[in-house]
Write a structure and sequence with these properties.
Blueprint lengths: L8 H14 L11 E6 L2 H10 L3 H5 L3 E6 L2 H17 L10 E5 L9 H14 L9 E5 L8 H4 L3 E3 L3 H12 L6 H12 L9 H5 L8 H20 L5 H16 L7 E2 L9 E2 L4 H4 L7
Helix pairs in contact: 2-10, 4-5, 10-11
């Protein structure tokens, strides 16, 4: 994803240790908690779900998720939780050190207040001691460029390497010293959604490190469903779909035993999933 990325698993573990050492809270295991807001469509749900299959998230990190469809859903969430904890001050209140927005900004009005409201809410959960650890990541196919990604080092827009190079070329061009012209070029460059950027699951999928073959099979299946959702709504071409579904099919062939995924040649390359243990199958979100 270039240099604008989610933290690596190694840095997550490092930060977790540092925070644990700083913590003076008693009788609680101090966890590196992550909160995910995702838009309520198939691709965002799939993208959120495959993050849970990363081996480090399954072992060491608590992940909390919340689906939204409009800005009011976010405000309602903030008010509800503030109300609960203001009336019950003895409740253990979770802290969050990374907040991820999946597909939110392309579907909800992305005025500055959304970013400010989210940052304010999660900043208020932390004491000043821990504020330096708080980071926000935006994973979105419409590339909601906003000044906040340049002016606030807490916010990161997840890009692939090619896009990152494009941005740095624009940013380093001496002719673009005028701030308004600079931002205008960014907006022009990312206003149109490129076909290869539409499926968020495919953006995240290559970087999920799975603990075992069953998890690897699961994320191939989930990514295939996500990709198919764009084909069914005619947002991608058949050529692009066929290319990407073949890539996923080839990845499945690298799973040594190959007994978790099966393909029916008469129905195309969309995989069918089977597990030996029912518990494993139940880990797939029922919405998917």
């Amino acid at each position: 994803w270039g240099s604008v990325t989610l933290k690596s698993p190694q840095s997550l573990r490092g930060s977790n240790r540092e925070i644990k050492e700083l913590s003076n809270r008693k009788n609680e295991e101090f966890k590196f908690n992550i909160f995910i807001f995702y838009y309520n469509n198939i691709d965002s749900i799939c993208t959120e779900h495959i993050l849970h299959f990363h081996k480090n998230l399954k072992r060491e990190i608590n992940v909390f998720s919340y689906g939204v469809e409009k800005k009011e859903d976010l405000i309602k969430f903030f008010n509800k939780h503030n109300d609960i904890y203001s009336k019950n001050k003895d409740y253990y209140r979770d802290y969050f050190f990374q907040v991820i927005l999946i597909g939110i900004c392309s579907h909800i009005n992305t005025d500055t207040s959304i970013y400010e409201d989210i940052e304010k809410f999660f900043s208020n959960l932390l004491s000043k001691t821990y504020l330096g650890y708080l980071k926000f990541f935006v994973i979105d196919n419409k590339r909601p460029f906003h000044e906040i990604f340049f002016n606030n080092d807490k916010w990161e827009l997840v890009l692939n390497e090619l896009e990152h190079n494009e941005i740095m070329t624009i940013y380093n061009n001496k002719k673009n010293n005028d701030k308004k012209k600079l931002y205008s070029k960014f907006y022009d460059n990312y206003y149109i959604v490129k076909e290869e950027n539409k499926c968020l699951s495919l953006m995240v999928y290559p970087f999920i490190q799975c603990a075992g073959e069953d998890d690897a099979s699961a994320i191939i299946f989930i990514s295939s469903i996500s990709l198919m959702s764009y084909l069914k709504t005619e947002q991608i071409t058949y050529d692009y779909y066929n290319k990407e579904i073949k890539n996923l099919h080839n990845d499945s062939l690298n799973i040594s035993n190959g007994h978790f995924l099966s393909f029916d040649s008469e129905r195309g390359l969309l995989p069918m999933l089977s597990f030996y243990i029912i518990k494993r199958s139940l880990e797939i979100d029922e919405r998917i």
